[in-house]
Amino acid sequence: MNASLLILALATFLLAGLVKGVIGMGLPTVAMGMLALALPPAEAAALLVIPSFVTNVWQLLAGPSFAVLARRLWPMMAGIVVGTVAGAGILAGDVAGVAGVGLGLALVVYALVGLAGLGLSVSPRREVWLAPLIGLSTGLVTGATGVFVLPAVPYLQAIGLEREDLIQALGLSFTVSTVALALGLLRVEAWQAGSLWLSLAALVPALGGMQAGQALRRRLPAVLFRRVFFFGLLLLGLYLSARGLA
């Protein structure tokens, strides 16, 4: 990695950590979106493994209900692991730009869902069969694009969790997705020693950005920031999709 790419990577994780600090998610999404402008998707995904793992474990352990959430969400988590490991070959191969287009489309869908403010609801009875399907779908999207959010985030928002429980559940889902992505990249030999050191170095700006984001969250209206964030992701997703199809 040359100096310009290194600067891009560090700036990316500083911004991604800032976003996560403000709204509780978004580090992998922002990192993949920006890094994919200059790197193949598999290389971009390899860089985000350690920053994503550490920041999400931090978020996970800060919540009050880990045991309860783990028992409730384990079918979803199992589906995430299976889908991610199975789909990692798409991300590593990036055949005819499929992974790049997939990443762009995932960002567009996520942004539209966020901008629309859709209020979905899932009853406890439906969780029994829906959770593993959501997990498997999320895993396949993660394995193919490196983005963890769809359809996991809308689903977790729809099952009626309290605010702190929701933040902790997001941390659990993203942590499992990160570990599964690392396993998938290892399976297809797309995670090299150099990526490990660069990913470790990216942890510093990610943590710094996350702390700054938490401070900013107390000053900036959350609704305004979320709108700007989702609109930016929409533009970035459209660009990546168009570039991949060109």
SSE diagram, text form:
Elements: H1 3-23, H2 27-35, H3 41-61, H4 66-93, H5 98-116, H6 124-145, H7 152-158, H8 163-187, H9 193-217, H10 222-245
What is the structure about, briefly put?
This protein has helices at about 5-25, 25-35, 40-60, 65-95, 100-115, 125-145, 150-160, 165-185, 195-215, 220-245.
Please tell me about this protein's structure.
This protein has helices spanning 3-23, 27-35, 41-61, 66-93, 98-116, 124-145, 152-158, 163-187, 193-217, 222-245. Helix content is 82%, strand content 0%. The two termini are 26 Å apart. The chain has one domain (3-240). It is an all-alpha fold and 246 residues long. It has ten helices and no strands.
Provide keyphrases for this structure.
single chain, 246 residues, mainly alpha, 10 helices, 82% helix, globular
* Number of discrete domains: 1
Distance between the termini: 26 Å
Quickly give the structural class: mainly alpha
Shape: globular
Number of helices: 10
**Largest β sheet strand count, sense and barrel closure:** none
Fraction of residues in H or I helices:
over 70%
Mean pLDDT: 87
- What is the chain-wise order of helices and strands? HHHHHHHHHH
Low-confidence stretches: none
Provide the β-strand percentage band: under 5%
Radius of gyration: 17 Å
Could you state the oligomeric state of the chains shown?
Answer: single chain
Number of strands: 0
